[in-house]
């Protein structure tokens, strides 16, 4: 019998808050039920489902009804892309209540990850497309409905994900969120400058680093939100390690961002990511904190229970 692969022990009690196993317009590596079973077999505590086309809270609630006995807490939320209702307070309110009763609504509300001017410019989209995408003004009041969305995050104590915005936008959003009482802030930080990382952390935020951005999936054009295929700029491992070191260990989140057919399943992707970071010099204690303790606290995940018949 072969010994378990190295790094599997790091997944015990871990939470991967960035899994793309929901239905999509391009190929997926696995479905949600398969993702939950594989996470349970690895002894993980939680999975966060992300979906560019719909509020994923309903699928998460269904997964918990069917596979909750395996001991993996599955949660969802809303990425406010146009197909999912856009940046809308009404869509946010629905997401927070969507599921099978109390406790099954959204655990996060995210600004767009692709329909932002920051990303649209990187993808060389048309001027008309860029103009229609989400952006944060440099000064003045935040435009509606952002204040109401921040207030909903504060009132429901859910994570406000800053989405894929420029550094200056992320810093302003984090500071405004803190001022309005949002206690859970998450910044996808794979390309952010150290100064932006520090500013978001100072506002009480966590910073997220994902396997996708150091993987081979960045080398080819993929369809993420529409029929156009675009590459995503890779993050060098050394640069990512430096960004991780620039943040306090208790504010770092590590995730797989797996689910696309080109990548391994999320459990294997997360294991590979942790091994890669350890080989590049990230201490094991930091890895454990960033993949287990921090996301469990951020997403309000219960202590894991033993899996039954994964």
From TrEMBL:
InterPro entries: DUF6282, Metal_Hydrolase. It holds the Pfam family DUF6282. SUPFAM superfamilies: Metallo-dependent hydrolases (SSF51556). It comes from the Bacteria. This is Uncharacterized protein.
